[in-house]
From TrEMBL:
Record's protein name: Phytocyanin domain-containing protein
Biased segments, Low complexity type: 152-163
Annotated Gene3D superfamilies: Cupredoxins - blue copper proteins
UniProt organism field: Ceratopteris richardii (Triangle waterfern)
Start and end residues of each Phytocyanin domain: 51-149
GO cellular component labels: plasma membrane
Lineage of the organism: Eukaryota, Viridiplantae, Streptophyta, Embryophyta, Tracheophyta
Coiled-coil region list: none
Key words, A-Z: Glycoprotein, Membrane, Metal-binding, Transmembrane, Transmembrane helix
Residue intervals passing through the bilayer: 28-48, 187-205
Alphabetized GO MF terms: electron transfer activity; metal ion binding
Presence of keyword Membrane: yes
Length: 206
């Protein structure tokens, strides 16, 4: 036989269901801050990654290209990368300003070979590159790029895809040029930190 539930108990259960509070404002605010925190982290990661530029655009790293004109149309930021795409008769060498002016590759800071080389621009300074083969540098195969500190806006400029299907190889360098830059600690990254603190404080109140 089924048990009959007294009417007063049914009424009390119904009242408890009706008076059960919905999601509180604090919990809603916590969820919103958590969402904004992950959005800030995602955007901050995008900013840190930087932009990859193929040197010379579709012409790549070769003779007969005006690299000074190519570089003048781009604002390079820390965290950006240069992709050198070239044939096996060329190389790419990073040098200092003096050797760049005299086309001297004997004191190379870094050297890339193999047809595709990537160099990370991780400092706000001027970088100097040249071809280390014969008189190629004297014939104009040289590049100087000035890098400024990264801001909350991504770099501008036209990015041309690499002309070779060979996977890029990082230029050998004693400097940590292949390391991922942790700049900038500004803009969205600061917002992410603020949201993290707020989320932690609110979680203590719940």
């Amino acid at each position: 036989m089924s048990e009959t539930v007294p009417s007063d108990r049914r009424e009390m259960a119904f009242c408890r269901r009706r008076t059960r509070p919905a999601t509180s404002g604090v919990e809603l605010l916590r969820d919103i801050l958590l969402f904004m925190f992950f959005v800030g982290l995602s955007y901050g990661a995008y900013m840190v990654e930087g932009t990859q530029y193929t040197v010379g655009g579709n012409s790549g790293w070769s003779l007969g290209v005006d690299y000074a004109n190519w570089a003048s149309s781009i604002t390079f930021k820390t965290g950006d990368s240069l992709v050198f795409s070239y044939s096996d008769i060329h190389t790419v060498v990073q040098v200092d300003e003096a050797d760049y002016s005299s086309c001297n590759s004997a004191n190379a800071i870094a050297t890339g070979t193999g047809g595709n080389s990537v160099f990370k621009l991780d400092k706000d300074q001027t970088y100097y590159f040249m071809c280390g083969v014969a008189s190629h540098c004297a014939e104009g195969m040289k590049l100087a790029v000035t890098v400024t500190a990264a801001s909350s806006s991504p770099s501008t400029g036209t990015v041309a895809p690499p002309t070779s299907k060979t996977p890029p190889s990082t230029i050998n360098s004693p400097a940590p040029s292949s390391a991922v830059s942790l700049l900038p600690w500004e803009g969205s990254s600061i917002l992410a930190l603020v949201f993290t603190c707020l989320f932690y404080l609110i979680s203590l109140l719940i």
